[in-house]
Amino acid sequence: MTSPGAVHPLGPPTLGALFRCFLHLGAMSFGGGMSAWIRREVVQKRGWIDEGQFLSGLALCQIAPGPNAVNLSVFIGTTLLGAAGATVALLAMLAVPAAILFGAGYVYFTIRALPQGAWFGTLLAGAGAAAIGLNLANGMRLTRRGVRGKTAWAIMLATVLAVGVLRIPLLWTLVGVIPASLLLTPRRKPEKT
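^ thats the sequence. predicted structure below, dont judge the formating
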């Protein structure tokens, strides 16, 4: 839950506000790049959670099974309003993309049979390229804010090389990188309140 003294520029989150926010997010983009949109709406625009909470949640969502956007909606909903918040955020996040996906599937299978239906595959390839660009941009922004110190850069570089260059499966990379990260990263002393 958010701290009692948290400042929410647009008011404290309610189930209705959470639903509208994630419905809007789900309608804006799906299939990739959602982490950046979610961060902008929930951290920067509404101030419902802070940057540290978002980065911690994103890290957790990336190692959990499933799409990051879906995992983030559950994480943020739970953080703000418990189980009801998680349910509302998840349903709102999936409503528009599911409708679009079912509609696109229907159109795809209808048009594919027509002789001039090849343009639809080109359209889908362009959408995939846009999603990759959004993910890269978000990764660069979060790297600048979240990776600090030589040890963190070394761990990030080792992960990129293991997965991207050496093609080591992500699970095995995480089995090696997570313990190394925990051992090599200096512990912060808790702040006194």
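Residues 1-5 have pLDDT under 50 and may be disordered.
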